[in-house]
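For reproducibility, we list the full input for the cytidine-5'-monophosphate complex.
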Amino acid sequence: MLSGKRVLLIVGGGIAACKTPELARLIRKAGGHVRVILTKAGAEFVTPLTLASLTGEKVHDALFSLTDEIEMGHIELSRSADLVVVAPATADLMAKAAHGLANDLASTALLATDKPVLMAPAMNVRMWLNPATRRNIATLRDDGISFIGPDEGEMACGEYGPGRMAEPAAILATIEAHFVREVAPKPLAGKHVLITAGPTHEPIDPVRYIANRSSGKQGYALAEAARDSGARVTLVSGPVTLPAPAGIRTIRVETAREMDEAVEQALPADIAIFAAAVADWRVADESAEKRKKDGNAIPPLQLTENPDILARISRHGSKRPCLVVGFAAETGKVLEHAKAKFARKGCDLLVANDVSPASGVMGGDRNRVHLVSPEGVESLPEMGKGEVATALIARFAERLARPA
Ligand code: C5P
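The corresponding predicted structure, in tokenized form, follows.
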């Protein structure tokens, strides 16, 4: 699977470094070459000799090594690989990478590389959950770095929770998936895909809002599938708990009006996919102060209509994307309602799905969709949301390539 691929393995200082000889062995077994950078702290847990024996290569550990600089400069070391894998990615290494620090060979290589980086974090659960680590991870994701793990479980320090490094076999599978994606066809290369995802929150007063149960999972999966098809992707996301996907420009918004504004700013686009569950209404008389329970009367909520982003963009004069795709989340008579919506919204395609509680689609990981087009309806089998996204993006790309 990894025939001829070169991996630069950066080993940080944590107990999980003990698992890296096994990772190096698996990469070699799969046909890959491994060069190792071992941090000073990493060398406390695994010896350079072990890693050199398993990789058949000298292990690099010093930034200012005259012999190393003569044989291979540290800049070249960071670029000679096809993929950089940091395992274990310690809190310290991630903090340095997030802030661009370069005071040892590992952090210098991470700053100097022009290659994709995959990190397999491992640390104590409190360190993992610490706001500083959360911030650093968000920064690294925005910078296009991918992550695997950490797994949840018992830790060497005796605590329980997320923080265990992913198993070497799982890291290998992620490395292989990276190279498979790299050679996969890129039908959307050079195209800009704009996607909305998640719910919107419509404020009632400073502490309350109207929302819905959309998790954003299908929209985020579409964004990743579009990215993997070679597109430049802008994801306009309502409030969700999902991390910003690597390599995707993610704009976070709260309300329908903010989403509408962000979509407008992101134009022009070749394809626009409106997967967000936008609130149809907002509160007309949003209160600047928290509403009080004074007296017995229940306060009325005066609602007003939100902008219909899909309908507006479908009828956009100058900047209408070539392909506009709507979504229809229905709880009954799915196809009947979807066809009516397709006619009403003015989009080119509409993806319909059943979101009734029994379907488990809202918040779940699986989905069953029907693609409504001028030619009719194509019903796809139930699949994981990632697979649904891949199938849909392939169809959108094919349609975009059709002569007008
Ligand atoms: O009318 P309904 O909300 O069911 O339509 C669903 C489709 O319209 C979805 O694609 C959704 O993202 C989009 N929509 C929108 N702006 C709204 C309401 C819905 O873009 N205000």
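The chain has a mean pLDDT of 93. The pocket of cytidine-5'-monophosphate is lined by residues 196, 256, 274, 276, 278, 280, 306-310, 326-328, 341 (CB under 6 Å). Both points were considered when choosing residues for closer inspection.
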